[in-house]
Amino acid sequence: MPVMNLVQAVSYTLASEMARDEAVVVLGEDVGKRGGVFLATEGLYDQFGPDRVIDTPLSEAGIIGAALGMSVHGMRPVAEIQFAEYVFHGFDQLVSQVAKLRYRSAGQFTAPLVVRMPAGGGVKGGHHHSQNPETHFVHTAGLHVVYPSTPSDTVGMLRSAIRSNDPVVLFEPKRLYRAVKEDVPEDPDHIVPVGRAAVRREGDDVVLVSYGGSMAETLQAADALAEQDVASTVIDLRSLMPWDRDTVLEHAARVGRVVLVSESPHTAGFMSEVAATISEQVLDHLLAPPTRVSGADTPYPYAQDRAYLPGPRRILHAVQRVLEY
Amino acid sequence: MIEESSRFEPFQDEPLRVTSDEGAWIASFDLDLDEAELQTLYRELKRARKLDERLGVLQRSGKSSFVAPSSGHEGIQVAIAKSVQAGRDWLFPYYRDYGVVSALGVPLEEIIGQMTGTLADPAGARQMPSHPSSGPLNVFTALSPIASHVPPAAGSGLAQKLAGKGDVTICSFGDGATSEGDWHAAMNFAGVQGAPVVFVCENNRYAISVGLEKQSGSATIAEKARAYGMPGYQVDGMDVLASLYLLRELVERARAGFGPALVDASVYRYGPHSSADDDSIYRPAEEVAAWRARDPLPRYRRFLEQRGSWSDAQEAALDAAIEEELDVAVRRAEAAGVPELGAMFEDVYERVPWHLEEQREEMER
Ligand SMILES: Cc1ncc(C[n+]2csc(CCOP(=O)(O)OP(=O)(O)O)c2C)c(N)n1
Q1: Is 0.85 exceeded by the ipTM?
Q2: Which residue in A56, A58, A314 is closest to B177 by CB distance?
């Protein structure tokens, strides 16, 4: 099996899907010869040429809107937004046009497109190269929202996204782009279905739930707990819309103590939904309140870049609270 | 009241130049700047260049996490600063505009503090490097999302028009910015309102790797002005005097109530897009070399030398003075210290609300 990191998994999967299906095209800023500023489209321009790997003018509204217009012709555009926060220039296209097309046309028109964007902090990028805006899109009916954290999942989920007949917003944890290499499945039809979480390890003392970039710190916290003989179950949500409620509830009910880790802002973040659902559905099984560890409700700061992120120290504090409850 | 436009005609085929590559005066009108002012322009070009070089050194030595090099843009940048009244008029620059802020009079220690994330930054090191600002000098805090500062610049011009004091706004951006919807919204708004805003495109022909021909359906940026009811001008942005004469005229025109204008200044960035870029992937070394041969600094120095207004001794003294100024600025910026953890919770709102107090406590625990 080929060994690669997360950003290589993106270009690998794009190449594989473009070879399989002529309808798949890539568009965005600097995706051509430059191969994308993170090299997520490296090699594609040479392999597939300028008609299928399109360097666009610098306009996110243009990129997403044009991807939509192409998709109603049966094409399967994969749009790259250079950094997640720049999607706001194309927000109206995504939430007003793309998301609602199937609904408002009663299925006469659909938008089988993918919008990929690197997101997340810890890269000394300040306000506009660090954010996690996924909640905006979870709040927008009609979009699937996924956020893989490993190279293998990136392969399987990007492929699912490209083959989906609904629009998919795929976040990529840029701080993990080059963090680890692993074997990825070679089967050109290997997919990870949208809506399915992954249980990374199982233990009976506490359940840690996370997704995206924060999976790294969550797993570090789990290692630290293991050294203190605290056994954790770690769930990687991977998909936020739809999310794998059954897997989370099963483990929450079995263990009774849950810590929810996400680096996006705390208030009304995705983990608020998970916490509320756990409380509503399995309250009788809980031994402590589901407890969130989040990014702050501030703009993403430059000077306190790492402090903003929920690191192992803050995760362990929360675990201690639920264990001692 | 001045006549509506005098010296320069909009929508010409070629960019305006007043000096040749060799540094000869080639304009159809007489030079009317005194020697002191001419020398000041050179000092500011050199300060901007050396500042950019120092910022590169700070980045490479790990003191700064990022830099967007400005070398090659100095001609138009110094001209922008020298065409307005500092502290009266307003500036809406973008991330590459170090030459604008340094020539305007923003202290180098503040600029370097911003670059290195220390409290010498008047904006408290909240933003990543390459985002300068100055409250006292009316330099609106630069922001990363391309072109998002252009509509506020139109609004700034409208406020100035309503106040009726003859103040103006200059807004600068790259060629890539002209593709964003925000840019077009702003141009039209200013055109409709007759807002006193001079829009300046620092057209270096690339937006990261994307060349101008893939960026713009029109052959020039200048001609886009026509659609918004304002004059558009091409200028050689590496000719500091051409840039200054043109901008001064457009600033005075805006002050006098004749409304906005668009300037398409042709420049070249000598460095990569940023410290995170590798420009050799998308532009040939010969192209960079060809533009280096037109470097605005030696060109303007030749102009001064031909007038007998600059000597090797003056050059050496200037270099030494700027290096010393930079050394002091770096030391002061470093000595200012870095922000405390809790500072990230301030300035979100006028007062820190309860939930942010709680989050600060949790984080500091
Ligand atoms: C809305 C938005 N999209 C994308 C980016 C990423 N980005 C940063 S600079 C840049 C190119 C800008 O080019 P241009 O406007 O020509 O200015 P230059 O950097 O060449 O001076 C891009 C695409 C961004 N900062 N904001």
Answers
A1: yes
A2: A58
